[in-house]
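Hello again, I could really use a second opinion on something today. I've been staring at a protein lately and its backbone has me curious. Please have a think about how the structure follows from the sequence. I owe you a coffee for this, so here goes:
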Amino acid sequence: MNFPFFIARRYLFSKKSTHAINVISAISVLGVAVATMAMVIVLSVFNGFHDLVASLFTNFDPQLEVVPVMGKTAPADDPVLTQIRKLPQVEVSTECVEDHALAIYHNKQAMVTIKGVEDNFPQLSHITDILYGNGTFELHAANLQYGILGIQLAQQLDAGADWDGYMKIYAPIKDGQLDMMNPASGFVVDSIISPGVVFSVKQAKYDNNYILTSIAFARNMFCQQGMLSALELRLKQNSDLEAVKKDMQKIAGKKYRVLDRFEQQDDTFKIMTVEKLMAYLFLTFILVVACFNIIGSLSMLIIDKKEDVVTLRNLGANDKQIVRVFLFEGRLISIIGAIVGIGLGLLLCWLQQTYGFVSLGQSAGSFIVDAYPVSVHYTDIFLVFLTVIAVGWLAVYYPVRYLSKKLLG
């Protein structure tokens, strides 16, 4: 058995001559455990919100999206896009034309994003799961063009799920110069009617701004005949998303980008990642402060064991081995604190997942979930364990060597 480790273990669990040393050691373990538990819980809550937001976007965003690198649109019959469509792993593909316009309904108006899609959009996404109203998903009928509004946009325009009459859509003509004598000539104007439903993604980006309509309507509004803004794809079940994405990017070359759901919402998830990183760094700083208790505990222990050190020297232990005894003591405190803290953190995360004890306060019922969402990622648990061990070991290394030389001569 490792001699310094054996002595350190006995020192940690044995009764000291001064009871205060036992208390300080227990406080040291508790401090590390609480800081570790806080890291596990906070990172898991951030994961919970991340997964919740990702699940909401899943209802609207495609599994994969191919968009042009240069410009906003590309030819729909581009051989590169045709080759991507024909990959054996692709189950559904739909063309999309998306741009900004002005919507006017009665005396209300709003800047909106018109998204024109093909009729197979419900097979591509889960849009039918988030429709509300008495109608059905419908984009056009004969010469009539339908528009499905985001729920917040419908409220903003006082339209509701099943509005009466026509909603006017204005889009600027991008070619040529504006005739100031006749400003109306600078716009393409068309109308949509209600299919009797609105959609609710529960994300402001879509619910406040988007109108879903047919791709023919969008192409006419934005003068994009034969063009598309994106090719949206759904893969067959059990397909390897990353491998297929890589193959598509090889085909697309530098002309197109292939985006998964997280890359389509890059800004949102980058902000969440930065917030999680800042929380991790802040909690690591708290952990460093908690580790100062270990230094105090070891200082008291070194003083208490001065006579034992003389005995160990007489038995043949050298100064390096004696220093390692106290280093192991500090490291044992870190390891025990890490294990206890991770265990408590996982227990509390399980209780929150199962029973939702911590609610969103007085706002419960106003949000998508009533309690804080929690998702334990074991890569985070491993990172927390490594962080606690690294901080604990680094925190005791220099102080122990210094105090050992200073107090033990």
